[in-house]
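call fold(seq) -> tokens
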Amino acid sequence: MKVVKILIATDGSKEASAALLTANRLLSPAGRQIDLLCVAPRLRRKQGDKQPGNGYQLRAMSQITQILERARARISRNEVPVNLLAEIGSPSARIVNHAEDYDLTVIGAKGRGTSSGQGGLGPVASRVVEHALAPVLVARELRSEGAIRILIPVDGSTASTHAIESLGELFDLSGAEVCLQHVAETPWTEFGVQEDWITYSEEDKANSEAGAMEKELVREGEEVIEQARKLLRPFSSISVTTRIDEGDPANEILSEADRGQYDLVVAGATGARDLKHTMLGSVSSKLAWNAPCSVLIVREPE
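ret:
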């Protein structure tokens, strides 16, 4: 059986500790190898200082080793090996570089709003989410004590399909409550009638070009959801509900994530890549920043 490699980045903060506990509960323990990584920033030497800062490096390595040992004690499972990686350098660069060798990278959401549970990302987490090509779990505190609640937005894209497949491979879905959500972008926007649409009668809507487009989008949404449901059929222990919404995809997904008290949102990410830039799609980026719960970002395969 293939060993699935998971990298969990920690810095000893409360957000990193919450990410550890969330990952410990969400991830499947079978066939997993977990590596804990803590990176201390490199000491910036003053101009003219020729000393390499060995004293700082020794103290930093001692401190981050202690952080790693405490983290391992929090998530240790007898059947899962946990390795410790202590390094000095740029935290975001080191995490992104390591991420290429792992099936999943877990990062805490340290940044604006985290103290109130309203999302946010810190500078390190935002760079990891933007640049790591392998799946990334932005892990926030779980919102439910019972069955895990998972929201999966689906749009029929390769990225969306790949995200569901990765979810099944990496996460413990036993008893999970899953909602498949499709958001059809409001058709009246394209026809310039958004200001008047709410005043239209049902008959006028049905007979209008925008109304016909709306019906077609709903039909396509039902097909997309059915395709996604088929991918979840092997997981017989989960319960699956569905919903189709209309509007701005990011806003509708975030509203449902908050309203439904979900523990995890699964986002298939699209975006341009080249040697100099790695750009995340706008919807997945907004979810990572603003979701009130954990977010799994899975890029479409190359």
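Strands lie at 4-9, 32-40, 82-88, 104-108, 136-139, 149-153, 177-184, 239-246, 264-269, 294-299.
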